[in-house]
Specification:
Layout lengths: L3 E6 L14 E2 L2 E2 H8 L6 E6 L10 E4 L17 E5 L3 E3 L4 H12 L3 E5 L2 E4 L5 E3 L6 E5 H9 L5 H10 L4 E5 L3 E3 L3 H21 L3 E2 L6 E2 L4 E2 L4 E2 L4 E2 L4 E2 L4 E2 L4 E3 L2 E2 L4 E2 L3 E3 L2 E2 L4 E2 L4 E2 L4 E2 L4 E9 L2 E2 L4 E9 L1 E3 L4 E2 L4 E3 L9 E3 L4 E2 L4 E3 L2 E3 L4 E2 L4 E2 L8 E2 L11 H13 L1
Parallel strand pairs: 1-4, 1-6, 4-5, 8-12, 14-17, 15-18, 16-19, 17-20, 18-21, 19-22, 20-23, 21-24, 22-25, 23-26, 24-27, 25-28, 26-29, 27-29, 28-30, 29-31, 30-32, 31-33, 32-35, 33-36, 34-37, 35-38, 36-39, 37-40, 39-41
Antiparallel strand pairs: 2-3, 6-11, 7-13, 8-11, 9-10
Helix pairs in contact: 3-4
Length: 415
């Protein structure tokens, strides 16, 4: 059995009673940042905390025991190796914990520590940490049990106890480790995380114009050749294709953006945008939308739970909700799909090659066949057959001289 368990040890609070693991960092908490930095070889993750600290997604909870913060580690599930995290932190190198695990397992050490700096080497050629304070260490299960039995209130004391019990100690060296203990250190960690993510993408061929003002989640997949303009928030779960241009001032959340697509000053949430499409400025794509290739989603357009076919143009001031739209459809300015009656949502189907005139209201449920045409200002409440023109508005009546008489009457009253 070569199972690795990661144990994040809580019980750390600032003077205001805020948990260190709950401090906000880039698109999540400090606890989330540590959990996401764990190597893929970790089989299980446990967060040791009390009821004042919120749970960490992806980690099982284990209650703090009385006395030492580390005492509860004696109750960990059976494992061959244990990675102990004494406090939340952000790493300048995203593979640092993987190197720690690799160093520990390949050399067969009883305990291995992660150090940010070194001051030379010992007689056996091992790096000597410049700072004795340790935030992450990996133990064999037997070594950890012996160290816990000897007591210790800090991870450093547990490491010393392990060595005293006969364990051979290894050291894995990385660049900067930013411990998160209060608001100020959380901000420093946030900045370190932003730099690590952005400059790693730049090294892979992504153009980021202003790394200091661009915020990208570590798990975002951005293809080489994409351009990210200032002020963008690319949150967890996003994918951006090659040649896409995102921003400025764009928010993506669990969004997939196709190759060569532009998303300018807009928001896309839990939706997929095809290739060579333009979105924005000031468009709002809500969850469960799929937009095809070569489309135009223009200014002040809102989409909700809708599918838009290839080549369709929705240029401006339009709302499309709960709809299936075909290919090569043109929406005139001010179109509204009226999908909600105050109690229920209804669906609208629009065929291929339709032309929707300006200020058309499509009152769901309704279906427009292929090549249907709606007159400007129409309110469509019935299905429209293929190739038909739908006119649904009052006939114009001109009342000669009406406004002249009205103006004259009001001017007379002013005298």
């Amino acid at each position: 059995m070569n199972k690795i368990t990661a144990a994040l040890v809580g019980g750390l609070f600032d003077e205001g009673g805020v948990s260190a693991y709950a401090r906000p960092v880039l698109f999540g908490t400090a606890g989330d940042a540590v959990r996401q930095a764990l190597p893929d070889t970790v089989d299980a993750c446990v967060f040791v905390h009390d009821d004042r600290e919120p749970a960490i997604a992806g980690a099982d909870s284990l209650a703090l025991s009385g006395g030492s913060r580390f005492a509860a580690l004696a109750c960990l599930p059976e494992s061959r190796q244990v990675l102990v995290i004494a406090a939340p932190f952000v790493l300048a190198e995203d593979d640092a914990l993987a190197r720690l695990a690799g160093t520990h397992q390949s050399a067969g050490y009883g305990v291995t520590v992660l150090a940010a700096e070194q001051q030379g080497y010992d007689a056996e050629g091992q790096p000597i940490p410049a700072d004795a304070h340790c935030l992450a260490a990996m133990f064999t299960s037997d070594t950890l049990k012996k160290a816990l039995a000897m007591g210790g209130d800090t991870l450093d004391q547990l490491i010393a106890a392990a060595v005293d019990a006969g364990a051979q100690k290894g050291v894995a060296v990385t660049d900067e480790i930013v411990e998160i203990c209060d608001g100020g250190s959380a901000y420093i960690a946030f900045r370190a995380m932003v730099n690590r993510v952005n400059f790693a993408l730049i090294d892979k061929g992504v153009q980021i114009f202003d790394p200091a003002n661009t915020y990208i989640a570590p798990d975002a997949e951005i293809a080489p050749g994409a351009t990210i303009l200032p002020g963008c928030h690319i949150r967890p779960g996003c994918k951006v294709g090659a040649g896409a241009v995102i921003g400025p001032n764009t928010i993506l959340e669990k969004a997939e953006i196709g190759a060569g697509t532009t998303v300018n000053n807009s928001q896309v949430h839990e939706s997929k945008i095809g290739a060579h499409t333009t979105v924005g400025p000031f468009a709002y794509v809500r969850p469960q939308c799929t937009v095809g290739d070569g489309c135009r989603i223009g200014d002040f357009v809102e989409l909700k739970k809708s599918t838009v076919g290839n080549g369709t143009k929705v240029s401006h001031l339009t709302y499309i909700g709960d709809a299936t739209v075909g290919e090569r459809v043109n929406f005139g300015c001010g179109t509204v799909v009226t999908n909600y009656d105050g109690y229920n949502k209804y669906h609208t189907d629009i065929g291929d090659d339709c032309f929707i005139g300006c200020n058309t209201n499509l009152v769901a449920p309704v279906k427009l066949g292929d090549r249907a045409f709606t007159a400007a200002g129409a309110t469509i409440t019935k299905d429209v057959p293929d190739g038909a023109l739908a006119v649904a508005r009052a006939r114009q009546t001109n009342m000669e001289g009406w406004n002249d008489r009205r103006r004259a009457m009001h001017e007379k009253d002013k005298k």
